[in-house]
Amino acid sequence: MRRLLMLLLLLPIAVTAAPYNRNEARTVNQVVFGEVDSVRYITHQEVVNSQRNGWETLLGGVIGGLVGNQFGGGSGREVATAVGAVAGASIAHHRQPTQKIVNYRLVEILIKAEDGQLIDVIQDVDQQMLFQRGDSVRILYFDDGVRVDKTF
To answer: What Cα–Cα distance (Å) separates residue 129 from each residue in 44, 133, 137, 151, 152?
Structure first.
């Protein structure tokens, strides 16, 4: 029960932890030392919608106008050009938005602090610092999140 309570209290901090470069100087509010109790590597999948900036709609309108201009004669050609431009712009604007999937590799680290507390932290995987059960670690608390590093 106590482990679950600590997880619920610290999860919002862990999830909002901003990644930073290890050589970047930051103000640390608190440092807690402990030992890794368990490690679980996980992924977080996020679907990102592409942002349309209007160029697709403009290009669709131009192409539609060029196609429409091929039909009719006199004022009929002007009407066909206008209808083609509107139709091309509409088709381009309403086409299915493209999506891409972004996978974030995360590590969930359960740490037994020196005072006996269990602290759970989720952070980005750093290939230069992979964690194992029994590793001595320090938990760095910042204004905008938390980070776990090995102590050597």
So the answer is: 19, 13, 11, 11, 11
* pLDDT tens figures, 15-36: 444 455 555 666 778 999 999 9
The sheet carrying 136-142 orders its strands as 118-124, 99-113, 30-49, 136-142, 145-150
Which residue type occupies 27? T
CA 10 to CA 145: how far, in whole Å?
10
Q: Rounded to 5 degrees, what are φ and ψ at 141?
A: -100, 125
Three-state secondary structure call for residue 57: helix
Residue numbers in the chain where pLDDT is lower than 50: 1-2, 4-18
Residue 47's nearest CA partner among 121, 114, 88, 103 is 103
* Residue 50 CB burial class (10 angstroms; 0-12, 13-18, ≥19): exposed
| Residues 103, 42: Cα–Cα separation, whole Å | 10
How much is the pLDDT for 107?
A: 93
